[in-house]
Amino acid sequence: MYLDEMLAFNKRFVENKEYELYKTDTYPNKRMVIFTCMESRLVELLHRALNIQNGDVKIIKNAGAIIRKPFDTVMKSILVAIYKLKAEEVVIIGHHDCGMSNVDIEALKKEMVNRGIPESTLDILEHCGIHLDEEFHGFNTVEESVLKSVQIVREHPLLPEGIKVHGLVIDPETGKVDVVTRGD
Ligand SMILES: [Zn+2]
């Protein structure tokens, strides 16, 4: 398990007071909340490519940087960042070559069954109104998906005046960012 390696590293990190390099408070220095994909290629690249230092921004992630419902946990986190943590700009960043583009739902269901989930469980969920097709549906193009998410934030009934909402797409190889839409 990688966990043990991580814990051993952490012990040394704290003992050597390496945390001192990262001291900051909880309010984002750049007054910004970023919502992006959980993509592992972006763990460090996104910060380096956009010059984000520790303490600069609030970061929210999920699979695909997807918001589809106005009251999901992502949207709630964005609202908390705005109301409680002084964020004034919201930036949604999708990326090229994302695992959530064109998700094969049938293959995913098969994989679940292969890993021991009874097919009856899938049927019961379907009966309860939890449609895996909807839940796991990703997107066809990343630009379209970013726009959709941006739209949900911009039109949110609880979004206060003056918050700028932008949509970007980043290349996970080069870090190059393209603007899909910018808030005014
Ligand atoms: Zn992704």
Automatic annotation (TrEMBL):
One of its GO terms (molecular function) is zinc ion binding. It catalyses: hydrogencarbonate + H(+) = CO2 + H2O. Binds 1 zinc ion per subunit. InterPro entries: Carbonic_anhydrase (IPR001765), Carbonic_anhydrase_sf (IPR036874). Zn(2+) binds at C37, H95, C98. The keyword Methyltransferase does not apply. Keywords: Metal-binding, Zinc. Pfam families: Pro_CA (PF00484). Belongs to the beta-class carbonic anhydrase family. PANTHER family: CARBON DISULFIDE HYDROLASE, CARBONIC ANHYDRASE. This is carbonic anhydrase.
